[in-house]
Write a structure and sequence with these properties.
four-stranded antiparallel beta sheet; 10 helices; globular; 311 residues; 11 strands; seven-stranded mixed beta sheet; alpha+beta; binds (3R)-3-hydroxy-3-methyl-5-(phosphonooxy)pentanoic acid
Length: 311
């Protein structure tokens, strides 16, 4: 059995969401896959992209300390917490093969994608179907246990898919016209550069800015407008406007700004997505000018992914 799981972008409201304002997140079709197959007496994990493998005895998994297992930690914690939640003593073993197209450590939720994929694969392997609410909660416990601190943004968006509003660490699915509008949008997610700082560091730096609240209020107004627009031109302009405000929080970089400028000039609009300090830009594509956009982007040393919303 193979489970394919999306990643996520924040369309509006990163950083503001830390202070009780809204953020809008979207699940995208840049995916990871978790394959699970029956295996006698062993649990084997293969991280195909990293060429790494781990073998465990069946009786080891439920008492394991995932944090000690490096790159395997999210997957191991997801297996352990799912088995514990479902009260399963594994009698048959399994092999899990993980592959991912999602760039890591750049705000796209690569670890949440693998976590949610593993929870679904393990529960379905034992024929115990979980509801989305249960999957999202379990995913959150995994991220919290592995990272020490977590936000529901990644695990919820990746579980419920489509568009979510996140406020006070609570997710709310947005349906209707706004979801339909975004279903017809085409995006480029551009991996611009490695992040020089971790999310927590960037959040702490923003915390020191006296004027941050004024910026968050402006971002909230942008979200109000974005939820009502029905033209891609307008929506793109609002993305670029959100980026201008993020720049004032000092979380952008010259290269990110350059890619955002290209995205705004040759697409409908663009912004950095996630905590900043490097990482990714999301561009709303103008289908009539996509060739020019790609031509300009290809002059930069970056990775480009064509994406759309998944629901
Ligand atoms: O870690 P990232 O890039 O997904 O950023 C998270 C967004 C922040 O608002 C900066 C932090 C948070 O916990 O919401």
């Amino acid at each position: 059995m193979i489970v394919e799981t999306p990643s996520k972008v924040i369309l509006f409201g990163e950083h503001a969401v830390v202070y009780g304002y809204r953020a809008i997140a979207m699940a995208i079709d840049l995916t990871s896959t978790v394959e699970i197959k029956r295996l006698d007496n062993k649990i084997v994990l293969n991280l195909n992209d990293l060429n790494k493998s781990l073998r465990l005895n069946l009786d080891e998994i439920k008492d394991i300390e995932p944090k000690n297992f490096g790159d395997f930690k999210y997957c191991l914690c997801a297996i352990k917490n799912t088995l514990n939640y479902l009260d399963i003593e594994p009698k048959i073993g399994f092999e899990i093969n993980i592959s991912s197209k999602i760039p890591v450590s750049c705000g796209l939720g690569s670890s949440a994608s693998i976590t949610i994929g593993t929870i679904k694969a393990v529960s379905e392997f034992y024929s115990r179907e979980l509801k989305d609410d249960e999957i999202a909660k379990l995913g959150y416990t995994v991220e919290k246990e592995v990272q020490g601190k977590a936000s529901v943004t990644d695990t919820s968006t990746i579980t419920y898919r489509g568009i979510l509003e996140i406020k006070n660490n609570k997710p709310k699915k947005i349906r209707g016209d706004f979801e339909e509008f975004l279903r017809n949008c085409r995006f480029l997610v551009v991996y611009v550069e490695e992040r020089k700082k971790k999310t927590a560091e960037l959040v702490n730096e923003v915390a020191k800015l006296e004027y941050k609240d004024d910026i968050f209020k402006e971002i909230d107004k942008i979200i109000d407008k974005a939820l009502k627009v029905d033209s891609k031109e307008e929506f793109g302009k609002l993305m670029t406007k959100n980026h201008e405000l993020l720049k004032r929080l000092n979380i952008s970089t010259p290269k990110i700004d350059r890619v955002v400028d290209i995205g705004s000039k040759f697409g409908f609009g663009a912004k950095l997505t996630g905590a900043g300090g490097g990482g990714c830009v999301i561009i709303l594509v103008d289908e009539n000018r996509e060739k020019e956009l790609l031509k300009e982007l290809n002059k930069e040393n970056i990775k480009i992914f064509r994406c759309k919303m998944v629901s």
